Amino acid sequence: MKRNGSQMVCESLLREGVEVIFGLPGGAILPLYQTLPEYPKLRHILVRHEQGAAHAADGYARVTGRPGVAWATSGPGATNLVTGIATAQMDSVPMVVITGQVARAAIGSDAFQETDCTGITLPITKHNYLVMNAADIPRIIKEAFHIASTGRPGPVLVDIPKDVFTEEAEFEYPREVDLPGYKPTLEGHPNQIRKAAELIDRAERPVILAGHGVIISHAYDELRELAEKAQIPVITTLLGISSFPDEHVLCVGMPGMHGMAYASLAIDEADVLIALGMRFDDRITGNPKTFATKSKKIHVDIDPSEIGKNVKVDIPIVGDLKRVLVQLNKRVGAAVHLEWLQRIEQLKRDHPSMLIRETEKLLPQYVIRQLSEATNGNAIIVTGVGQHQMWAAQHYTFNEPCSLVSSGGAGAMGYEVPGAMGAQVGRSDKVVWSVAGDGGFQMTMAELATLVENKIPVKFAIINNGFLGMVRQWQEIFYNKSYVSTAYSGNPDFVKLAEAFGIFGVRVTEKCQVMPAILAAMEHDGPALIDFRVEQEENVYPMIPSGASVKELIEEPKPERVRP
């Protein structure tokens, strides 16, 4: 049957099970938008900025496990997506991005709103396409979803010239994908798995370092089985948080630059390090030459290019983490590491990273702890990047799988508003809290209008210190308190701003107001915003300076601390 290119795109998206699209129209992609009314099963959410579309598609993908979809027009529409695409690429998030392009005859002529979208996004996509014939659209869309969601997930961009949207051709959707050069390895090599099991069985001080790959492969049960069977403490990367229950007796928390001191020290003392679905990011390793030097290392990852990239490992295993752990768990023997677990408990007593000092001041750590208590650790928490992100990672108790959503590798400020929007659309059954910095919030706060327009009930906790907090902290510690271009003296009244958007808003300045405000926001049936005016120069501790080793760990100065 004959279809034009726009109809082919919509038909193809339906075949791939797409329900939601985040986008913003413009000239080059207008034919596709004009076709949308023919396809009422495709819900389109009109964002206020294309960066919001990309981050929302990203947040949707993370909580559903299905590729998020974003649309934008050519030129500035496409380039506004770049930050969101790069974020998805760094964090292995499946996305399919469709952009309009100038008509085929105008490509290369510097036509109005022409940019080389495939060239620009080549380094930040898993793959991209420029479609020059409408007949190719079904095959390309099928391939795009397959590439985005298999192997190591990532974003795929499909750039379509305006006249291809209107060109007619026969529509035939392929049943299978034939990509001879793309065959991800799913099953781990049996010999490598056997060697790993033998090394684990011999270990006296093993640790598991669980990353985002556990969440991507839904290997929650397999990770827990390995940890409990062999009594191995579990440490999680930032994006690995919520892959293992925080309240589990074997959970040791997050290591690295702003992780718990005892987690970093446990890695340093371990004799076997089992790295699962993580890439030895510099925020974890610091100086790779001094990272975990006492340990033999097992590294399981579906992406062979990550093996040995940053840290040399002894037993590499390439494969889908869930499948590898199923086989590994069959071989690993039951064990008890009582002395090692007692040693970690001693490290926790000697380096109590999670204590909050007794003060009448409103501390951000206290806010996060109260939020965790109010939600019973069962909300989805979406953060931006900076101090508030680290406090959320440290002080919220994550009890459910895949409940922390954040920009990890790219570290994109502004993720907190649209990322939360996408997460809420993907999981309408869950309470979604955006823990936001006052700086990052202002980068994408226009999407508050999108939330109201679409009745998306995200709750916002703005950790408002009037600074670019993490940058200010570095200036305090490394630049003798030379606070250059980090103070925000012109912040808006966030409560009035919320009210201008038609959102419930409240300001909190004292500790006694925190819990009532959180509960009021949760009882409100629409989006809500709390402006927490916190201590301005509070720092995130512990801290390992960039490129340093665990021996250079900076712990919080020693004024009296108490457990809340």
Describe this structure in words.
The relative contact order is 0.11. The termini are far apart. The longest helix is centred in the first third of the chain and has 15 residues, at 50-64. This protein is of the alpha/beta class and 564 residues long. It is globular and about 70 Å long. The model has no long low-confidence stretch (mean pLDDT 97). It folds into 3 domains: 2-170, Thiamin diphosphate (ThDP)-binding fold, Pyr/PP domains (Rossmann fold, 3-Layer(aba) Sandwich); 190-350, TPP-binding domain (Rossmann fold); 356-540, Rossmann fold, CATH 3.40.50.
So what's the overall shape?
globular
Between the first and last Cα atoms, what is the distance in angstroms? Answer: 66 Å
CATH topology annotation of the largest domain:
Rossmann fold
**Largest sheet data:** 6 strands, parallel
- Poorly predicted sequence stretches spanning 5 or more consecutive residues: none
**Structural class given helices, strands, pairing?**
alpha/beta
In total, how many beta strands?
22
